[in-house]
Every structure is written in C-alpha cells, then in structure tokens.
C-alpha cells in the first residue's frame, strides 16, 4: 500500500474551494464547518494511521436535514463526499480525499428511544457501541455486538463495516442485530429501511446497506435489537503448548455441537503483552490461550463447562481455569479487549489485519503464518475470534526503519491471500476500505466486481460517495451499464486502476 493511489483530484473542485466552503457554511452555520489546515489535521487519517490526507473541508452536521442538504449540494455540484464516524476504521475506510467533503457524524450522539416491549432501541449513528449497553444495562438488557474498540467506535461505523466482536459467534454481527436504518442518499433523499418490526417482505435492502462502507448513503438513525442479559455467564481460560492444539480444540468444541457465546485465542506474544497491560493472571508459559465463554441457564452452563473442559484436556491443555465470579470473568475479557493497545508495547508500529477462514484450517493457517513471519523477518502477534475463524494478526514493524512498512504490507497481503486460498474471505469485520481494495481480485473476478459496482451505481449514480475504497478498478456508472466481459478480457483498459 505504499504505492497507494486514490482517485485523481478534480481540479475544478479544488479551484472552487472557497465558494464551496461558503456554501456549506450557509447549510451548517456556526462551528459546523472546519476549513483551516490546523483544524482539519485531526481528520487526516483514521485508525490505519500509515496513510494521511487532508480533506477539502470538514463538515459536522447535527440534523438529518443538514445531512440531506449537504449531500444534495454535493450531488448537484459533483463534489465527492467521505462519511466518517469515530475514525476507528482499521482498513482506511474513512481516509479523506483532497477534493472531497469529509462528512463527520460525531454530533449525532443521542439515544432517541428505548423500547423494551419491542426489545429495541433507536439511536443516532454517533452513539458509541458500548454506550447502548450502558444505557439499558440497569434494566437487564444489552447490545450484543462488542468489538474490542466498543468504548470508542460508533454505531454508524459498525453499520458501515458490519462489525462483530468477541460474542459474535453466538449472537451474530451487526447485520444480525440491526432492525432498521434511516439513510440519506447522495441526492438528498431520506429513506427508511426496516424498523422496529421483524423482517419485511421484498428485497432485503437493509442487508445491502449494512457493510456497504459508506458507498451507498449516509446513515442518520439506527434501530438496534436489544437482548436480555443471560442468567449465567462463565468463562474458561485454557492454555496450550502449541497454537495447533488450541486450533484443534476450537474445531472440536464446535464439532461437538456446542456454541459458546465466544471463543477467543491469543498467542504467546499477545498473552505477554495483555498480561503486562492488565495483570489478570494469564499464564505466561503457554504458546496459545483460549477464552471460552458459555452463557444461559445455570444448569446448562455447568453441563457445557464440563464438556468443554473434557475436550480441552483431550487437546493437551496444560492450564485450565474457570471463572468463579463475575469480576473474574470480566477480568478474563479485559485482557483480550486490551490486547490491541497492549501489543503497542512490543513494537512502535503494527498493522492489524482482518481475514476469515474455515475453523478447521486454523492449525494450517497458523503454521503458514509462522513461515511467512520468518520470510519477512517480522514478528506477528495473533489475537482473533477463533470461534468463527476471524483472524486478527498484528504484524509488528518500525516505520522508522527503511523497508519495514513495505515488508509489513507484503506480509499482510500474503496472509489475506492465504485466507482466500483455504476457502476463507478477505475481511470478517474491518471492511475492505483501501487496505484490501487491491486484493479484491484474489476473491472476485471482473464479472463479480462489476455486479457489485452496479449496486453502487443504483444508489450513487455519479460515484461521489467514498470513491477509491473497496473497488480496485474505477468504472463510470454509464459505462458499467453497457459493459460486457468476454473471454476474461478486461473491458475499458484505458480506465485508470488505483
């Protein structure tokens, strides 16, 4: 990605910058428009911090009507728009463009309605993931998706990336826990998809929008599903002499028909970093650690704990500890959720990858990653959702050392190719963004990508929303409308590739 290319800046838009800023200030008065270099600097990057670009201007609307007016103006004037939530995207999904309006949704931070009768809540997209649970936990409810960044990441971003978390194995990702959205199209039209009711008939456009990475519209309201807190939750901390043993244990648990609330795995480097960070009693003499959580009625949990313990011992577990209190259970998870920042102690920089594989391939993929680590001369710490095969290898490097960023990116690309090779996919929850954009042909052929682009064109006829993300080849919607692929020959070879 050091050769990263984004769409060429539109010189006509750049030349009209002062006029555009003035027009946007008429739509969002007061402090809602940021146009100085110093003021825009905090928005130049997201959590993929290796890449930075100042936007044309930053706009911070506070109402749906303002969002609609901004998008309508940008559509009429052919100005690109990059939506941004909390800026925690690890795939560069909200990386600005030089000629684009950065549309920040941070002021949409209210919980509008909590409806226990319908087991749902209506929230604005700037509400943090954890903020929903905090608002309803006193009544015994919670919001199930819980990414490690849940204290900071926003619901709008979760919708954009279809985020998951440590409990997605049993309770699903964002798409399984969102009932409806209010969406503003690039034309300024406000539409509603879904709502407090269960699944509607007709085309499932809600599922198209969830995970669309800001390419189809801007979400201004989200209806989420609330769940009742389970009667009992117990967690096991299980250490293994090899990562292959831990991977085998995961496969056997699922193969036995047991669906835990979550199964997380960390390797030796990640264990040491997390334990030094939170001091929760992780064993430091093992190569791999599993956290297995079971929840539900007390009798069911007790039975399944015994089943999982037996499977773990058959897989050569060398340490096994069961949480005896809620405080201890939360302590187990505190280490896992702090693993990403904790790994920052091991290296000045790291790339957090995100790919998903079939569970049975865990031992093979972990072994191949060790080989790649030796090939590139870089360490990798593994922290991932083992239960659903969603890997998060953390490639450690030092950006101040010549060539290490290039090596880290090549290492990461090989890991993602490996995921596809064994029957997996390029992303589980972080999205494609710019990080995996040029790897999309590893998974999709030209016909597949063209069909996906046609969906975007149906929502965004001028290609103004978050351009340069997800799709490796730039096509114009009019050209896609008459595109034919024959014999594997790439149509429109004169169009630039990013």
From TrEMBL:
The cross-references to Pfam families, in alphabetical order and at most eight, read: FAD-oxidase_C, FAD_binding_4
Please list the coiled coil stretches: none
Which UniProt keywords are listed? Answer: FAD, Flavoprotein, Oxidoreductase
Domain named FAD-binding PCMH-type: which ranges? 51-229
Tell me the domain of life.
Answer: Bacteria
GO MF terms here are: FAD binding; oxidoreductase activity
Its cofactor is:
FAD
Q: Reply yes or no: does the keyword Nucleotide-binding apply.
A: no
The protein in question is named FAD-binding protein
- The species this protein belongs to is Xanthobacter tagetidis
